[in-house]
Amino acid sequence: MTKAELVAAMADRAGLSKAQAKDALDAFVASVSMSLKAGKEVRVLGFGSFVPIQRPAGMGRNPRTGEAVKLKASHTCRFKVGDTLKSVLNG
After folding, report:
1. CB burial of residue 7 (10 Å; 0-12, 13-18, 19+)
2. pTM for the whole structure
3. 16, 32, 70, 88: which could form a disulfide with 20 (CB 3.0–4.6 Å)?
């Protein structure tokens, strides 16, 4: 599902215009991004949690040449699926 398809589905289900649904989705993404940047976990009950992760610096390999490469420390996030969503997917 693309962002445009998600916006259309949100607009249809919530009775919003596509512009309102796009604004709501953009606000959600911005809010989650700012919380993760601040190092805070974002939990959506029944859906899942976005958890900030700090990756330490280390060594990796270039898959094409096999050459060792230094990797910088970085920040990312993981998504943990909630029980309700898991039961929908497996139900």
Report:
1. buried
2. 0.81
3. 16
Strand order through the sheet with 42-44: 42-44, 48-55, 74-81
Per the listing, tokens 């949690």 go with 49
- Please spell the DSSP secondary structure of 18-42, one letter per residue: HHHHHHHHHHHHHHHHHHHHTT--E
pLDDT in tens, 5-54: 999 999 999 999 999 999 999 999 999 999 999 999 999 999 999 999 99
Nearest 5 degrees, angle CA 55-CA 1-CA 81?
Answer: 45
Distance between CA atoms of residues 91 and 84, nearest Å = 10
